[in-house]
Amino acid sequence: MEKEEALCRIGETLDNLMCADIAARGSIACLYGAARKLSPAPLTLGAAKILKNSLKAKDRVVLATGWIDQPEAAPGFGETDGPGGTLVLARALRQLCKAACVVVTDAGLVDGMKKVAQAAGFHCVAPDALDHSIERDKLMTLSILPFPAEAAQAKAAAVKLLDEINPSVCIAVERGGMNEEGRIHSMTGFDTSAAQAKIDYIFQEARRRKIKTLGIGDGGNEIGMANIKDCIRENIKYGRECLCPCRKGIAPATLVDYLLTAAVSNWGCYALAGMLAALCGRPDLAHTPEREERILKNAADSGFHDAMSGGVEYSVDGCELPVHTAMVALMRAAVQQGGR
User: Fold this and answer.
1) Can you tell me the distance from the alpha carbon of 10 to that of 274, in angstroms, rounded to the nearest whole number?
2) Which is it for strands 123-124 and 141-147: parallel, antiparallel or unpaired?
């Protein structure tokens, strides 16, 4: 009981930290409140337990991320929120659960993701080479694969991916979700579907196969936010009616088994990775400010941009590098102090 209470305290602290609205976007309070109503435990603790209970050594995890948020202006480039958090979470899954991680993203973002993965400490290899490094417990490896944007191709690719990878868990991080008309919207209400890989089909097929699915998002238009669709329609601008011809709003239609909301999706991943470290009794493996600096600088140097400022700079969602390293330091302290 004492251990569970300690984990709950850590979880509450991590939830509070990941929901700090530093950029003053004004949406996280209602998003988190709605998601928390669906979970009896802190969101980070609930998600960490799913991961720990679902995974054993060499089990596959599919992680989907990347957002080409300005397809007309910069069709081959994505935002800094998502890639870094995904790779930190993949690192935790590899170290704590001995899981084999496969990252799926848009074809145009694969090369950039591989550079950021190296900054996170990974070698990028083919999926069939992942088991070897886990067996040796030596090199940190993962796979990064492209996924198609055309709907029919994406549906077929989802079936093929799940057949070949056979994951135990699928996680979407800051990944645009299709609404009921199959359209993916920006937070400003515009249709960005044409440029986006239709990763929803992976999660829809995974749920049909009873594979555990998690969604991590911060705005209301990401895969998994369908879990709190009513909240988004009532409280988020363009949630009910978008600016594109479909007029069906930005609220996604793809459900997940568990939703985690944060002020910045990367922070949601860092908090979840820290909670998993606490749950596994390895607080030393929580994310570090030093690695955060390396990842974020590499992301910008690889062409990822801040979706709020529009700049290719060392920032995410309007928060500059010192904010992110400070947040990581606080999360790490919460994990380490709470476990004493």
Assistant:
1) 9
2) parallel
Q: What is the CATH number of the domain that holds 71?
A: 3.90.1640.20
* 131 — pLDDT class (breaks 50, 70, 90): very high
Question: Could you give the 3-state DSSP secondary structure of residue 63?
Answer: strand
What is the domain range of residue 56?
Answer: 2-338
Q: Which residues contact 167 (CB under 8 A, 6 or more apart)?
A: 59, 60, 61, 62, 102, 206, 211
pLDDT of the residue at 338: 80
pLDDT tens digits for range 70-100: 888 888 899 999 999 999 999 999 999 999 9
Nearest to 106 by CA among 217, 214, 184: 184
Count of domains in the chain? 1
Q: What DSSP letter does each residue of 252-304 carry, written as one string?
A: -----SEEEE-SSHHHHHHHHHHHHHHHTT-GGGS--HHHHHHHHHHHHHTT-
Per the confidence metrics, is the pTM higher than 0.85?
yes
Mutual angle of helices 265-279 and 43-54, in 10-degree steps? 60
